[in-house]
Automatic annotation (TrEMBL):
PROSITE patterns: PROKAR_LIPOPROTEIN. It comes from the Bacteria. Keywords: Signal. The keyword Signal applies. This is Solute-binding protein family 3/N-terminal domain-containing protein. InterPro entries: Solute-binding_3/MltF_N. Coiled coil: none annotated. Residues 51-274 form the Solute-binding protein family 3/N-terminal domain. PANTHER family: ARGININE-BINDING EXTRACELLULAR PROTEIN ARTP, MEMBRANE-BOUND LYTIC MUREIN TRANSGLYCOSYLASE F. Pfam families: SBP_bac_3. The keyword Signal applies.
Amino acid sequence: MRYKVLAALASVGVLSGCVTNSEPVLPEGWEEITPERVNEIAALVDDEDGVLTAGTNPPFAPFELKDENGQIVGVEMDLARAMASIMGLDFRPVEQDFAMILPSIQGGQIDIGVSGFTDTEERRQNFDFVNYLYAGIQWAQPTTNEEDVDPANACGMTVAVQRTTVSETDDVRPKAEACDGDLEILSYDTSDNAAIAALTGRADALSADSPVTAYAVNRSEGKLELVGDIFDAAPYGMAVPKDSEYGPAMAAALQHLIDTGDYARILAQWGIEDGLIDTAMINERPIS
C-alpha cells in the first residue's frame, strides 16, 4: 500500500499533504497576514497560557496540510493565526486524528478545533462553531473512466472518502443503504489518500467537500476531473467549547478580518473565492 501511494504521488506531484522537495506547498505569492492585537476583542477571552491551541488533521488541503519542512500550513491555519493575533494570543496547531479533535476539546487538552469541520445540528449539541465559509459536497472521478459517474445514482460504484467526514456520514453511507449495499465505500484517514484512491483507479469516484475536491483536481495534472454539481451546501466552522468565551472572541476577530479585507485576502491566496461570508456567525447566527 505504501509503495502504491508513493508511486502515485511521484506521477502527479503534490495532491495535498504529501510533498516533494521540488514543489512547494504554499501558493505562489503567499504571504503571512498578521493583524495587530485589538484590545477590546482580546478582553473577551481569558486564555491562561496566552496560546490558542487548535486540533487539526492534515492533510485536508487546502485547509490544512504540511509543507516541505513538516510545518502545518493552509487556509484555516492562516485564518486562525490571524484571529489569534487579533485576540492577543499566539497560535499553535496540534496534529490529531480527526475523530479525536472534538473529544479533545471536551477534555480540555486543546482550546479549539480547526480541521475543515462542517457545522451540523448534531455537532452543535455539544459544540459551538465560528462560521467562516459555505461549501458543499463535490465529487470527482478519474479522467480514464469510460462513463461519467452520477453522484445521484451511484449504485454499483466504489467511492473514496475521508473517514468520519460529512462525505462519509451524510453522503455515501446513506446512498449505500439506498443501494442495499451495492455501493462500496473506501474510507481513509486523510483526504489525500482518498483522492489517490480515485486517481489510481482503485475507486470510481471521490466524495469530499467542494474546496478539497477542487484542490485535488487542480493538483492532479489532468488525472482527476470534477463530476456533477456541488450539493448539500453547509457552513464550515471552527469548533469551540459550548457557550465558552472562545466563540464570541473568535467571531469578533473574524469580523475584524472581514471588515479590513484580510479575510478575503487570506482565502484568495489559497484559491477560495466562492462561499465567503460578510458577517461573522456562531452556529449560523450573526454576532451583530
